[in-house]
Design goal:
The chain is mainly α. It is built from ten helices and no strands.
Length: 246
């Protein structure tokens, strides 16, 4: 469905307009994260002139990443809400902000156990180790005294932003035009590639998780369900990093 600007009927943005709106959403995320990172580096340099953060280490610095995400995620979500409001479709309906039933939560948890179990077996068979990015991020945030901010950003803000954008906004715009499963595959692929800080094996794992989350979003009609599962996965990664740091 394409929104006809000559009418006042609320309609979800169609495929190409959803793609077009994805450009300012992406640019806003990059811009705000960059501003947050630059601000963090400036403050850190003034407080710790003898211990500057090298640019090569910035991508795994937990304090920097937590600060940039804490700044960018709320602003990106506000931009997304404004874009949705332009369609005149209620925000909760457009972004599928519906509380899932306990049955759907159980199905989602079971699917997550299966997917993570299979990917862990494959990782073990291939000799893949937990990404150093996670441990480095955790350790540097802990050293800077910013571990609570990292946990909040990584476990809550990051999953909330990504689920609203990918399983909420993009899926809603793509599925009516190209079908549910093509939309699931497309959003999963874009979501996976956006995690370029990981090695290709783990980008593939994220893609598979995206397929599960997309299917659950389609089945349950709830982005809140995928947010809960996404937050759980990230929380387990933090717990694993904490266990490795002991």
């Amino acid at each position: 469905m394409e929104l006809n600007p000559s009418t006042s009927q609320p309609q979800i943005w169609g495929f190409w307009k959803t793609v077009a709106w994805g450009i300012p959403i992406t640019l806003a995320a990059v811009l705000f994260q960059t501003l947050g990172a630059v601000g963090f580096l400036a403050i850190w340099r003034s407080l710790h002139p003898q211990n500057p953060i090298r640019l090569a280490d910035a991508i795994t610095n937990g304090g920097l990443l937590a600060t940039s995400l804490a700044l960018s995620a709320p602003l990106v979500i506000l931009l997304l809400v404004w874009i949705v409001r332009l369609s005149k479709v209620p925000i909760h309906e457009y972004l599928a902000l519906k509380w899932p039933s306990w049955r759907e939560i159980a199905i989602g948890a079971g699917g997550l156990v299966v997917v993570l179990g299979i990917t862990n077996l494959v990782a073990t068979a291939l000799g893949e180790q937990t990404p150093e990015f996670i441990a480095d991020t955790f350790n540097t945030a802990q050293a800077a005294g910013l571990l609570p901010l990292l946990v909040f950003s990584f476990v809550f803000l990051g999953p909330l932003q990504e689920e609203l954008v990918f399983r909420g906004f993009f899926f809603a715009g793509f599925a009516p035009a190209i079908g549910a499963w093509p939309a699931i595959v497309l959003t999963s692929a874009v979501w996976a590639v956006s995690h370029g800080q990981y090695e290709w094996f783990f980008i593939g794992e994220i893609f598979v998780l995206g397929l599960l989350f997309g299917w659950l979003r389609w089945r349950s009609g709830s982005t809140l369900l995928t947010f809960i599962l996404h937050a759980f996965v990230n929380g387990m990664a933090v717990v694993a990093a904490a266990a490795g740091a002991v």
